[in-house]
Amino acid sequence: MPHSVKGVIAKSKGEPVSVEIIEIPDPGPGEVLVDVKACGVCHTDLHFREGAINDEFPFLLGHEAAGIVEEVGEGVVNVSPGDFVILNWRAVCGECRSCKRGRPWYCFDTHNATQKMALDGAPLTAALGIGAFAEKTLVAAGQATKVDSRAKPEVAGLIGCGVMAGLGAAINTGEVTRGDSVAVFGCGGVGDAAIAGSNLAGAHTIIAVDIDERKLEMAKEFGATHTIDSSKEDPIEAIRQITDGNGADVVIDAVGIPSTYEQSFFARDLAGTVVLVGVPNPEMKIELPLQEVFGRGGSLKSSWYGDCLPSRDFPMLIDLYLQGRLNLEKFVSETISLEDVEEAFHAMERGEVLRSVVIL
Ligand SMILES: NC(=O)c1ccc[n+]([C@@H]2O[C@H](COP(=O)([O-])OP(=O)(O)OC[C@H]3O[C@@H](n4cnc5c(N)ncnc54)[C@H](O)[C@@H]3O)[C@@H](O)[C@H]2O)c1
Ligand SMILES: [Zn+2]
Ligand SMILES: [Zn+2]
Fold first, then answer.
1. Closest by CA position to 146, among listed 87, 93, 89
2. Is pLDDT at 187 greater than 90 in this prediction?
3. Ligand 1 contact, 348 CB (< 6 A)
4. 155 and 199, same structural domain?
5. Pairing of strands 268-276, 299-302
6. In the predicted model, is pLDDT for residue 1 greater than 90?
7. Does residue 235 line the site of ligand 1, with CB under 6 A?
């Protein structure tokens, strides 16, 4: 029997989101119906409602979630009803050219549910193939990863996007290791997770850069050893000063705009790595001196979802959290209800929160 539940919908570009009754079909082959328990508000949800990702309105927003499996469709073997799961937006296919080359974290054909959820009979686009600002959601089985149920849903869900993206940008994409110097531009949920990841990996110097003093204070709690307010001083010069005139080994851009990318490019040491994890919009362009791109060596990388493998990384991060080695609770600034998502976007824009988390 199809399910009618509440969900947060972005109907058109820039219009405030609203809570509507949506219809969800029973899970078909390879699909899973999840009873959502918590879902964090990520900046990418706001990018969707601003039309900066694509034009496939109406969107069912929310993609940073944990919940309980309610029903599974035919052929599903990785999870069962009652399992506590974190949802992921890159369920690897195992068949594409990247998976076959042993690099499933770059999978070019990730899976989502085949059936669509609907509003008044019209199909919805689920944000990042999840759509979890809703009492229930329908995903592909591979999008649900079972983790230790002792973790609280409001912290576990954060691993499903921002924490994994930032932490993985540092440890998977940037390959931060013992003794490295790291600079992180943008200290929201994603940037602070990159700081926490660099700290876990043994970085020696961790420089947080933001234009908001409050964010810099929070960054210290995740392990930043230095902070730079780039609205007041030139971050390139300041990073060089902190790193004996050299620049950082790994620079992570968790804002994703041309100015921070350019700053990241020039703030790294020779042979260093720049990791772009912030999501640019389609109009953005950069211009860099090609001779510098060549002469500085090293690598310029992008990080999709922290180059993670959910089945490998989610249970590990939950274990680190349960052991007290990864403080996920510090990311949760407030818990809210589905009706408060629009206001949470404004709180995010005002820089007041790291993560507002919807509890269901
Ligand atoms: N690549 C991925 O897989 C992935 C996953 C999740 C989110 N993201 C993206 O990461 C970015 C950050 O997400 P978030 O949820 O942490 O957002 P957020 O809004 O919570 O944080 C952004 C931070 O950047 C700071 N900032 C803004 N302009 C700046 C500037 N010019 N210089 C320095 N700091 C500046 C803000 O003050 C804020 O602290 C977004 O673009 C989001 O879409 C990417
Ligand atoms: Zn694949
Ligand atoms: Zn996200």
1. 87
2. yes
3. yes
4. no
5. parallel
6. no
7. no
**Total count of domains within the chain:** 2
| 120 in a structural domain | yes
Task: Mark whether 64 and 169 lie in a shared domain.
Answer: no
Q: Which ligand is nearest to the CA of 230?
A: 1
Helices and strands (DSSP H and E) totals, the chain: 11, 19
Distance (Å, rounded) from C-alpha 218 to C-alpha 355? 12
Q: Is 256 in the pocket of ligand 1 (CB under 6 A)?
A: yes
pLDDT tens by residue, 152-165: 999 999 999 999 99
Tokens of 298: 């090293």
Torsion angle of alpha carbons 280, 350, 67, 170, nearest 10°?
A: 50
Average pLDDT of every residue of the chain: 97
The reported pLDDT for the residue numbered 336 is: 98
Q: Are residues 42 and 150 in the same domain?
A: yes
Q: What is the pLDDT, as a whole number, of residue 36?
A: 98
Atom of ligand 1 nearest to the CA of 303: 1
Domain extent, residue 216, equals 163-304
- The residues with which 5 forms a beta bridge, in sequence order, are 22
